[in-house]
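quick one, 338 residues, struct below
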Amino acid sequence: MQDQIRPPGDDRPEGELPPARGPVSQGVLDALRGPVGSPVPRPASIGTADPLGDDLQLALYLCYELHYRGFDGVAPAWEWDPGLLALRRAVEDRFLAELRDRTEGRPDVADALEELLVEPVDGDGVSHYLRDEGELWQLREYAAQRSLYHLKEADPHAWVIPRLRGRAKAAFVAVEYDEFGGGRPERVHARLFADLMADLGLDTRYGRYLDHAPAEMLANVNLMSLLGLHRAHRGALVGHFATVEVTSSPGSRRLAEAMRRTGAGAAAEHFYAEHVTADAVHEQVVRRDVIGGLLADEPGLAPDVAFGIAATVHLEDRLGTLLLGAWREGATSLRKPL
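---
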C-alpha cells in the first residue's frame, strides 16, 4: 500500500518527532517535548554507546534538525539551549573520533580526488545494482532514505559560505546557486526530489521517513551538518562537498536509467537526469576553484579536506553495504517497511 501522497510544497514546514532508539535519544525527545530548559541527558550519559549506532545518531540528528526547520511543537529556542549543546558536543566528539580512527592512513587531497574520479569498469555499488536489477520497491526505499538529505539539499553545505573567501567563496556560491534552482523555485533541487517522491508514491512531507532510516543513513546526514556548523571543520566540509559533486554525475546517470527502466515516472527520472549535466560541470569548478582557492588561501587545511573526503566515502560505503546486503536477500533496508 502506498503512502498518502501530498502535493510537493503542501506540507508543514517542520518535521515530526520520531520514536526514541535508546536512552540518550529518549532523553533528548523528553526534553524537546517540554519547555526550554527542561532536563537534558548529561554528556556522561552517552557512556560507551556506539558512536555510529541508532541511539547516538538519532540524538545527534534531533539536535541538528533544530538548526534547520525544527520539529512540530518544539520551541525554536531549544536550538541554543546550553544543556543540549553540551550533550551534542559530547556525541560529536565521539562521532569524529570514530571516523578519524576508521579513516587513518587516508591519502592526501590530490590522491583522494584522483580516486574519486576513477570509475571502476566492474562497479558494483548501489547505483549499479539499481540500474541493472533493482526493482521499484527498492527504488522507493532508496528515495525514502535519501529524502532525509534531499528535501533540504544543499542546506548543510551552505553553512560554510561565510567561512570562505575570494575564489573559493565565489565558486562555492556559484554551485549552490544551481542547487537552489538558479532563482526559480520550481527548479530547487529539494523541490525536484519531492516531485520524484510523488512519482514513486511516497509521502513528500519533510522528515516523514526519519523513523524508517537506519543509523547508517542518519550518520551520512549528520556528518555534513556537523562539519557545516563548526567553523573549525570548514576544510572537511569542503572535502565532503567535493566528494558529493565529483561522484554525483556518473551515479546520477545510473539512477536515471534505473528510474526509466522501472517506469518510475518522468519526475523521478528528471531529478537524476538534472544532476548528470549540472554536476559534471560542478565537479570541475569544485576541484579547480573551491578546493584550489581554499588551499591557496589556507594550505594548512589540506589534511582536513582529505579527512572530509575519506569520512564521506567511509559512511557512504557503510550505507551501501547495508542496502545491498538487504536487497540481495529480498529484505527491506529500512527499520520498518514502507
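The mean pLDDT is 94.
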